[in-house]
Amino acid sequence: MAVINHNDVSVIVVHEGGELSGIISRFLQHEGYKVIEAPSPDEAIALGRVDVEIDLLLCNLAASKGLELGLKMRTVRSKVPIVLITDSDDAEKAAFAHGFISLRQPLLFAELISTLTMAIEKPSPTQTGQRNRDSR
User: How many domains does the chain have?
Assistant: First the structure.
């Protein structure tokens, strides 16, 4: 299995404020990821509709908003892996039921990196894993 160079990975981080999202973005940038911040689900979808490289969507939203965004993003970029940061068993189960990857709070940065790496290397059955711009 090839090792992924984080410098080649573009991640949209979707959040609606909060200190944790800023910390996550800064940490990912420090690790070499190309981070594109989207302060709302609508902005994330707008990014998905333009010709911008997106390798992964990381959502730090309330459970229902994260699920809704994930489902909408699939209609725009069906091959992009989606990771939802969840805070409850129910949210985690819902994410799994829709084929999304769940990352449970509280976050450990090592777990964040390993989850993102796994999502890109081995996508869920509903995703093909191809990293390209025409994943629509």
Answer: 1
